[in-house]
């Protein structure tokens, strides 16, 4: 899965940037709602953001290891 996204992000960099912006917006919205409303349901957005950041990091690591030689 990380390999597939690494290839995808190399081929479609604008969509990858859009994905990053969406994850950042979800993080910011979740933080704001969690602080403003003190409702724990908005912590799901923080969990989603953490998972996606980990996914992006692993894909980037894979790309750096194996695609740098190309």
TrEMBL record:
It comes from Photobacterium sanctipauli. This is Uncharacterized protein. Keywords: Membrane, Transmembrane, Transmembrane helix. PROSITE patterns: PROKAR_LIPOPROTEIN. The chain crosses the membrane at residues 17-35, 41-57. It comes from the Bacteria.
């Amino acid at each position: 899965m990380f390999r597939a996204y690494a290839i995808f992000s190399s081929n479609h960099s604008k969509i990858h940037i859009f994905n990053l912006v969406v994850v950042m917006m979800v993080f910011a919205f979740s933080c704001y709602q969690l602080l403003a409303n003190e409702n724990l349901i908005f912590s799901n957005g923080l969990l989603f953001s953490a998972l996606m950041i980990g996914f992006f990091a692993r894909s980037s690591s894979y790309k750096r290891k194996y695609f740098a030689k190309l």
